[in-house]
Amino acid sequence: MTQSAKSLTDQVTLTQFIIEQQRGLPDASGTFTLLLNNIVTACKQISHRVNRGALIGVLGSAGSENVQGEVQKKLDIITNDIMVKALDWGGHLGGMASEEIDDPIKIPKQYPKGKYLVLFDPLDGSSNIDINLTVGTIFSVLRCREGVEPETEDFLRKGSEQVCAGFVLYGPSTMLVLTTGNGVNGFTLDQDIGEFILTHRNMRIPEESSEFAINMSNQRFWEAPVKRYIDECIAGQEGPRGKNFNMRWVASLVADVYRILNRGGVFLYPYDLRDPERPGKLRLMYEANPMAFIIEQAGGLCSTGTERILDIKPHDIHQRVPLIFGSKNEIERLISYYQQPTDN
Ligand code: FBP
After folding, report:
1. What is the SS3 assignment for 218?
2. Which residues surround ligand 1 with Cβ inside 6 Å?
3. Does pTM top 0.85 for this prediction?
């Protein structure tokens, strides 16, 4: 529910919203609010850099590769540094992990360690940055043993253990979408006052949908359940679904998730037979898990096709998973197709 009619004085800032939510929690110490404040400050700096783009020479490739073997954009590295510098000094974190860095990022010795871990994708959809399409930052917050140097094992926790997940969209508006386990809320950055203002309270995904998102160019590598589901959607009214479907694919996970949060739909980046060793493209710890927490908190479902994403026990910080999520009734149908015997 947008609240554009509300006067300035009625506007609820992110800080006010979080402090009011935390008041309900007996053991809240305010540390989480301060941590979130630092994450948001980093995203405001990133929004500024992304927005200025060619004016400050930050577009284009950096000519280096990340742990995923992907050529890094200049902004992949710049946004990663902004996140690390905004989060390492605060005393809230035991450690961090980033899509752009191989190993967990340690808190420098001169700073105190805290009781949280943050895993993040500093610039999701970066393949779209040079063509001025929506990109974003995705983050996931876990608790950790206080005052100790966390091992990699400390990060490898199920998505169901997340205490908070969110993403910031750098699009026509800069928006933050957030959950701490009490539903999903959206905030729009008021560039005039530099504050995120609550504009989308209690976002809910429609259970029904007639829109799907998938990279069709991978069709020949899909497994039978996905082939069947997409074929039936494309068959439209004359087909077994008896209704027409629309298709969207932004190739920016943050943008595809935000569309589905607003008007429903199904997103698939499924397992494909291209490289059996590689179960999918998207990463569990800082893409699938935070999005799964948000999608489920908004009434949708999120699965690999055969397993709930939030129940997966991770074995690597950069592991990839098949990712299927969206409107409840459609995902239940897709999961039922995986349960039916097929010829491949
Ligand atoms: P990164 O840019 O963070 O590596 O994200 C991967 C991503 O761009 C997702 O945002 C998007 O959903 C997907 O890859 C698009 O994949 P493809 O280019 O195969 O369509």
Report:
1. helix
2. 99, 121, 124-127, 215, 251-253, 281
3. yes
